[in-house]
Predict the 3D structure of the following.
Amino acid sequence: MPENLMAYIITAQRGSIAGMAEIIQKMGRELEWSEKCIYQLNLALDEIVSNTLEYGYVTPGMHRIEIFLELDGALLKMKIKDNAAPFNPLKKAAPELDKPPLQRERSVGGMGIHIMKSLMDAVRYRYEHGQNVLELEKNLEKATSCITRPVVGFGQGGTEQGGWQ
């Protein structure tokens, strides 16, 4: 049974990622995750949200990105939902890391997606009800860089927009 379920809602604006990063950092420190693990989780989420903000919206205006975190024992589940243009990051070609940068045959971009996929244990995508839904999982016990003590629950957060609810 999941121990914690939290949601973070941001508006699609530059700078709105900072609050999310602070919450991940607070949660990780309270649960005694390593700084490396906190950094990796924030990096994965930052790549997703940044790509959505940069490429997902054609028209300016108020857009929502919802981020849900669930800690089920040592399994951290993250779900990111947005109403941007449909985009499946799992279909993006992997970068040709075996070649020098100037010899790679790839379009601009894709490295952030590669990093996000390499940091997580599972990544799933679907488009439903007009929304992109990206689900990420990381087993914190298997990730030797994460757990510094046995896994326990995390406290409740706020309920306002731009915060956990």
Remarks:
- The first strand starts at residue 4 and ends at 11.
